[in-house]
Amino acid sequence: xxxxxxxxxxxxxxxxxxxxxxxxxxxxxxxxxxxxxxxxxxxxxxxxxxxxxxxxxxxxxxxxxxxxxxxxxxxxxxxxxxxxxxxxxxxxxxxxxxxxxxxxxxxxxxxxxxxxxxxxxxxxxxxxxxxxxxxxxxxxxxxxxxxxxxxxxxxxxxxxxxxxxxxxxxxxxxxxxxxxxxxxxxxxxxxxxxxxxxxxxxxxxxxxxxxxxxxxxxxxxxxxxxxxxxxxxxxxxxxxxxxxxxxxxxxxxxxxxxxxxxxxxxxxxxxxxxxxxxxxxxxxxxxxxxxxxxxxxxxxxxxxxxxxxxxxxxxxxxxxxxxxxxxxxxxxxxxxxxxxxxxxxxxxxxxxxxxxxxxxxxxxxxxxxxxxxxxxxxxxxxxxxxxxxxxxxxxxxxxxxxxxxxxxxxxxxxxxxxxxxxxxxxxxxxxxxxxxxxxxxxxxxxxxxxxxxxxx
Length: 456
What we know:
GO molecular function: metallopeptidase activity
Structural class: alpha+beta
Shape: globular
Strand content: 25-35%
Keywords: Hydrolase, Metalloprotease, Protease, Pyruvate
CATH superfamily of the largest domain: PmbA/TldD superfamily
Domain Metalloprotease TldD/E central: 133-239
CATH class of the largest domain: Alpha Beta
Domain Metalloprotease TldD/E C-terminal: 246-454
Number of domains: 2
Largest sheet: 6 strands, antiparallel
Enzyme class: hydrolase
Distance between the termini: 69 Å
């Protein structure tokens, strides 16, 4: 079964040949599963390569080059499921992996929801989304880039006497998913990053902040000098923080933290939470959860999108669709298993969502601040104080106090609290200042009123 090129072959130069080999291997594993008596089977094969370097205070801390691969086999005997995986491509190891998956399936309980997604839902229009942009960066080049980034930040202000370091990462991934419906899907993607974290001040007055850039193509990364300077500006701006009196205020979540509010929604409307009835949004399709103007759309086919795909993790064809329209929740986020448990159909979200876009109804951050007038701008969230069963929300926060639409001073050591259902209803604006570093694309989000626990 071992048709994969040896690990010493150039990873980027022969990516198509490697995908071909993974596809051939997947078919042989499916044939072995059928021969063992499985009614249905699916195989996921992947190969990854990466380079990561870290520097701190002008010195190299780590250089890591990685090459990984994985083969996962899942078989179904009626409603009984078994899975096994390996990274060993020897013939005997692959055969043992199939045998182990079959043995597990024969000992599991029957589950009527188990099985492949329906054959009629398999993707047929398979395409690429300009997501393959290998970066021929050597370790020495990556080190120089990280050092330049950190130095640019440290040179920005004499109060930046310490650093948490700078890093450069580059990764490439090849994957094939195949199942016994005859579906074979191939994907290849790259992702590159550059980041820096700096420490301003001394002793008990120290403040830390940073910045990073991430893209599928290295030519879309911000420059090392820009990343270092932004990290420096953010760290210095947090010096001499104060608290604010406990009370209820408007809270503006900056774009990089605003997407966490969308993340809580995704968790609450995902199939696993719903069929377990462990969500505050059970039976919420068709309900107005947000203001009338609010909308979230899923766009799987964006060129160079972080989560662009023709098919989900089960081979189901993806499609453009609305998650929220007119403030109303349009659907859940389902794979085939959770859909069956709920008596519904998969939404092609096995493995997660594909490129969410939150519609803006306001201008950039400055315009949002001007519109808020007085309140709290949150730029960092701490802790995990979110109860997805009740929707109760309580998290540590840091940011800036706003008066007359302008930042007045840094704020730290406070807690913001509310209930997600009420917070969603209280959203007053979404900015156009979209943070492009995620598959959840949103600008700043203004919640009209939240409890802020500070002094007193």
